[in-house]
Amino acid sequence: FKPMVKWLAYLDILQMEDFEFPTPEIESRVVMSIFNAMSFGQPDHPDIARWEERAFKLMQGSSDINLRVQNGLYLLAYYLWTGNHARAAFIVKQIQETPLSKGISPLTLIGIKVVQAFHCIFTAECEPGVKAVQEALQIAEETGVHIWDNHLLCHGIASALSMGDFVATDALLNKLLGTIKGGKRFDIGYC
Q1: pLDDT one digit per residue (tens) for the chain, 191 residues
Q2: Minimal CA–CA distance to 43: which of 32, 31, 52, 55?
């Protein structure tokens, strides 16, 4: 995440807070990218709370379900890691209550399950967490969208271990070994 630090320094120069974007979708993508750069690369950035709040409001107001789930997933990670469980629960509820439409992508369907599984680790709701992982992996298998497999498997392993289900843990670990070979450093380091 080192390269992001350089780009974050330009925010003050660009005065992005007051910039008017041509569409809400572009604004949402830019704001979320700035927020992600801060949360992953510089979580102690002095302006992170302002960008988090802006990203949160944009996520709530988005009519694009794919963008809403993508942004919700990143906000959820931030809230869980920073201990803001009330906001995390709100994000999960919002995403779960979002009506599914014909325009929803397989990546978004999987993203909904990632949100559920990740949140379940923090709330000790292990069985629903493992179920969400299994459902997401099934969608990935059917659609060929495997971007989140490594994360899902790690979430499933955490939930299965917490339940004391060593059979499920072993099965998920064996699947994880298959994703690690040739995987990206971020994915390998995630678990």
Answers
A1: 566 767 776 666 566 666 788 888 888 888 888 888 888 888 888 889 988 998 999 888 888 888 888 888 889 889 988 999 999 999 988 888 877 777 788 988 898 888 889 899 989 999 999 999 999 999 999 999 998 899 899 999 999 999 999 999 999 999 998 777 766 666 666 66
A2: 52
Q: How far apart are CA 146 and CA 170, in angstroms?
A: 20
> Residue 29 to residues 23, 24, 187: CA-CA distances in angstroms?
10, 9, 23
pTM (global) more than 0.85: no
* 3 state SS of 62: coil
Q: Write down the H helix ranges in 83-184.
A: 85-96, 106-123, 126-143, 149-163, 166-180
180 token code pair: 């690690």
Please identify which residue in the block is written with the tokens 């599914």.
Answer: 100
For 131-157, b/e burial (b = at least 16 CB within 10 A) is bbbbbbbebbeeeebeebbbbbbbbbb
Query: Do the beta carbons of residue 160 and residue 172 sit within 8 Å?
Result: yes
